[in-house]
Specification:
The complex is a heterotrimer of chains A (324), B (241) and C (285).
Chain A (H helix, E strand, L loop, with lengths): L10 H7 L5 H22 L12 H5 L8 H19 L4 E3 L9 E6 L8 H9 L16 E6 L22 E6 L8 H5 L5 E3 L5 E3 L9 H5 L5 E3 L14 E3 L11 E3 L4 H4 L6 H5 L5 E5 L6 H8 L2 E2 L11 E4 L3
Parallel strand pairs in A: 1-8, 2-12
Antiparallel strand pairs in A: 2-10, 3-4, 5-6, 7-9, 11-12
Chain B lengths: L1 H21 L4 H22 L47 H4 L7 H4 L40 E2 L5 E2 L4 H6 L3 H9 L5 E3 L8 E3 L2 H4 L35
Antiparallel strand pairs in B: 1-2, 3-4
Helix pairs in contact in B: 1-2
Chain C lengths: L1 H13 L5 H27 L14 H15 L1 H9 L3 H4 L2 H22 L22 H28 L6 H27 L11 H28 L6 H30 L11
Helix pairs in contact in C: 3-6, 3-8, 3-9, 4-8, 6-7, 7-8, 8-9, 9-10
Classes of the chains: A alpha+beta (324), B mainly alpha (241), C mainly alpha (285).
Chain lengths: 324, 241, 285
């Protein structure tokens, strides 16, 4: 097995192989290099179309949200507001709302009452400044309403494209799904750069200035609660909601993941989230889990609740219950 | 323009019905009387208010202007949230006469109409009512027999119109309990009482008391995933996937 | 050090010499790469919408290719094990090809991950002194470590062996044998960690299955040597470098065994998923 004669090379052949540069190889190599570089430059030409301000040194050097000093954060907030005003023509009331003390948010949804009208999903688009200029460009809403067959609780048989003349349909019930703000959140666990984390009040947030857009968290979420900005959000000036939070509904850049934050720019100011505000049937119940007299605790104490996909072990803060 | 037609309907309808039914039951006579009474009432009322210059095509005087718009509901939620569509599922219709500017005082008409359990022949007003509320087949199940501005309690006492929730609570105990706790029906505004108020809708702002089941509604469009490949810029190698 | 740089420079020069067929092939590859660069430039400007992915299907061919190439890289170990553990002399001649192939595919892996990022401009966030590295929590951060580690290991081993050959001297065992053994474990780890990337997602029942890492390895040990055999055949035909039949026969045997294991695991997996229609396999039905 040891005779591999062809591979025994002599110094002479080696010298031949590594022969010094001559005029011909130089020209050949040079021409090929020039052609290759020209091709590369031509190929990368689309990069010139980058809008001004899409890629700034400040953005590249920004620190993680939780390492920012207050004055640094204020400076970033101001530059983001300036950018929004410059690009969109609206000066947002952009601020960074911290979690409230003694508050842990919980949400409950009454499946007996939900009629599947999708008003929550559309209010979400409005509240959170998501693209909605075209009818076929409204995928970003954080809420999907699943149409379920009565007699089944298996989401695999559900349909979220339902479009009958009227809802509710007789043999169906409706299951809106949004971020469950899990106590054991798989999404925050898998993020390689800690761009998403759970806040003190239980809300799972994303730092849009830190996310690298790998979408691993989307793969990890069992509830399809995360959305990715496959493009820069398109939104008309008049449609922009100027009440914005750094970690919630400020205008996102492209290429980052976002999600439901229980409208923290509203709820951390004591208001109800937008989806609850518009629900025509009052199927949604929101409140402070740490307050024994809150509405959410009334539900947990008096109704039989369940959580979606309990077997995954996510321990959601979002509960479903039936009234009758 | 609508008023003469209305009166004609009231008169004609009332008379015709009263006549037809009168042949079968004594209640018809009441209806007949009611029809005449209504006209009398209209005339009396019209004379009681300052008379506006008569319109060219209409001999009847204009209706009085009441300061409060009829059947007004309190606002839902915070003024700052006006951009969110918070329309309750039910628009209270308001009575025809009230819409024309009449006061909301039911007794203006009903002082002439005695309370009867089997009073199932409304003439002009309330004709559109379809009573589909479980076991409640009669007006007086809920409305007070003497004071039509109020509802009736178990013991015959009056429940003020504003306290309609107390009326519903007579039968819907568990729902009332949930409503009190804030988990049935709509609440808007602030979840945190320290930060601000909340508005709480009452039963009849969502449920039509005469047919309390929710009406089916049109769903808003589904959230579609854009067919991205379809409207692609001409990018040469973009079809990489 | 200087000598090593000269060595690298000479390799670079060497890469410009060849016959017309070599130039045609390299030219073709360059054209493909340039088209890819152009597509990526478009994607960078317009966002990942150019890929046609949606929120429903958020990972696509990029990640699939990444996973496949990790497998091929891991399979290089199938040349290393017979050569260094079982001391098969004939494998020593070709083991270098396996390591070079591993370098090439790991580079491709890293590129595939990079183009899949929504914000490649923020890749620094993944590199510890500049960013916040979610280690050991995130399996993706493990993957960054094992892939780059494997790349460095192979660069060292292949670089050292080639350098010794260039100097016509026998490689010193102490400088590369420990790394060779490390790379054997490391190769298993890169594919295992990549499998854990999927297995760790409890919300995806079809992925959340203990057989997945074993199957990843078994199938990689079929696909990788298969690719190597094809490469050997091309090298035999197109180049002066002679490769005997013995390495190919060894690889064939490895493939046969790995394929049997793979098919057995596949069968067990299919049985578990489809014998009873549980929700576990609902997405596959």
């Amino acid at each position: 097995m040891n005779e591999i004669p062809a591979n025994q090379q002599s110094p002479r052949t080696l010298e031949q192989v590594y022969r010094p540069l001559n005029r011909r190889t130089f020209l050949k190599g040079g021409a090929a290099t020039v052609a290759g570089m020209a091709g590369l430059v031509a190929a990368l030409k689309p990069l010139l179309a980058l809008e001004k301000g899409d890629l700034t040194l400040d953005d590249l050097l920004q620190k993680h949200y939780r390492e920012l000093k207050p004055d640094e954060l204020q400076r970033i907030l101001k530059s983001l507001a300036d950018k929004c005003e410059q690009e969109r023509g609206v000066r947002p009331n952009l601020r960074d709302l911290k979690p409230l003390d003694g508050v842990e948010f919980g949400y409950a949804l009454n499946l007996t009452r939900c009629v599947g009208c999708r008003r929550c999903a559309h209010a979400c688009l409005k509240e959170n400044n998501q693209s909605r200029d075209r009818w076929d460009d409204i995928e970003m809403s954080y809420i999907r309403v699943l149409e379920m067959n009565k007699g089944a609780i298996n989401v695999e048989t559900s349909n979220h494209y339902y479009a009958p003349e009227t809802v509710p349909q007789k043999d169906k019930y409706y299951l809106p799904v949004q971020c469950h703000q899990c106590r054991q959140s798989p999404c925050t666990k898998v993020c390689p750069v800690q761009a998403t984390w759970q806040e003190k009040d239980g809300v799972v947030v994303v730092d849009y200035n830190w996310c690298i857009g790998c979408r691993y968290c989307m793969a990890a979420c069992p509830y399809d609660a995360r959305r990715f900005n496959y493009k820069k959000p398109t939104i008309e000036k008049a449609a922009i909601n100027p009440n914005q939070g750094y970690l919630s509904n400020r205008l996102r850049p492209k290429g980052v993941v976002e999600k439901c934050t229980f409208c923290l720019h509203r709820t951390r100011e004591g208001k109800y989230p937008a989806c609850l505000e518009v629900c025509p049937t009052g199927a949604r119940v929101f409140g402070n889990l740490l307050d024994p007299d809150s509405e959410i605790n009334y539900i947990l104490n008096n109704k039989r609740v369940y959580v979606l996909k309990e077997e995954v072990g996510t321990l959601p803060r979002f509960y479903y219950f039936f009234d009758k | 323009m609508k008023l003469p037609a209305l009166i004609r309907t009231a008169l004609g309808g009332g008379l015709a019905r009263g006549w037809r039914l009168g042949s079968r039951s004594p209640a018809g006579a009441v209806a007949l009387a009611g029809g005449i009474g209504l006209i009398a009432l209209l005339l009396v009322h019209a004379q009681g208010v300052p008379i506006a210059p008569p319109a060219a095509t209409n001999a009847l005087p204009r209706m009085p202007v009441v300061p409060r718009p009829p059947a007004q509901q309190p606002p839902v939620g915070l003024a700052a949230d006006a951009y969110l569509d918070k329309t309750p599922p039910r628009e209270t219709k308001g009575l025809d006469l009230v819409k024309l500017g009449w006061t909301y005082n039911c007794m203006e008409c009903h002082k002439l109409f005695p309370a009867k359990w089997h009073y199932d022949r409304p003439m002009n007003e309330h004709k559109d009512l379809k009573l589909d509320h479980g076991n409640n087949r009669f007006c007086l199940n809920c409305h007070h027999p003497k004071n039509r501005n109020a509802f009736v309690d178990y013991d015959g006492a009056e429940i003020a119109q504003a306290d309609v929730v107390q009326l519903c609570a007579k039968c819907h105990g568990p729902t009332y309990r949930d409503w009190q706790a804030g988990v049935h029906g709509r609440q808007n505004g602030h979840w945190d009482a320290k930060k601000g108020d909340k508005t709480k809708l009452r039963c009849i702002q969502c449920h039509d008391p005469h047919a309390p089941n929710f009406q089916a509604m049109k769903p808003q469009p589904a959230l579609v995933y854009p067919p991205r490949a379809a409207h692609q810029p001409k990018a040469a190698g973009a079809a990489q996937h | 050090m200087r000598a090593y740089l000269t060595f690298i420079w000479r390799i670079w020069l060497l890469s410009w010499t060849g016959n017309r067929r070599y130039y045609a092939w390299m030219g073709l590859l360059t054209v493909v790469a340039v088209i890819g660069a152009n597509a990526w430039a478009h994607q960078f400007v317009e966002g990942l919408q150019t890929t046609g992915l949606t929120n429903q299907v958020s990972w696509g061919a990029y990640i699939a290719n990444f996973t496949f190439l990790v497998g091929v890289a891991a399979a290089a170990v199938m040349l290393v094990i017979p050569a260094y553990i079982y001391k098969k002399e004939h494998m020593h001649e070709v083991v270098l090809f396996g390591e070079l192939m591993a370098i090439a595919v790991i580079v491709m892996c890293l590129l595939f991950v990079t183009v899949d990022l929504g914000r490649p401009d923020r890749f620094l966030h993944m590199i510890p002194p500049f960013g916040v590295f979610n280690f050991p929590g995130s399996i993706l951060s493990w993957d960054v470590i094992v892939l780059n580690g494997y790349l460095l290991l192979n660069l060292h081993i292949a670089g050292y062996l080639l350098y010794c050959r260039y100097h016509q001297r026998k490689p010193t065992k102490r400088f590369y044998i420990p790394f060779v053994f490390l790379s054997i474990f490391w190769a298993v780890s890169i594919h295992t960690v990549t499998a854990f990337l999927y297995v760790g997602l409890a919300g995806r029942p079809f992925w959340h299955h203990p057989l997945v890492p074993a199957r990843f390895l078994a199938s990689a040990f079929v696909a990788g040597p298969g690719l190597m055999i094809l490469a050997f055949q091309i090298i035999r035909k197109a180049m002066r470098f002679h490769i005997g039949d013995a390495p190919i026969v060894t690889l064939r045997m490895i493939m046969t065994v790995a394929m049997l294991i793979n098919m057995f695991l596949l069968g067990s997996e299919l049985f578990t998923e489809f014998y009873y229609p549980t929700q576990h396999a609902a997405s596959a039905h």
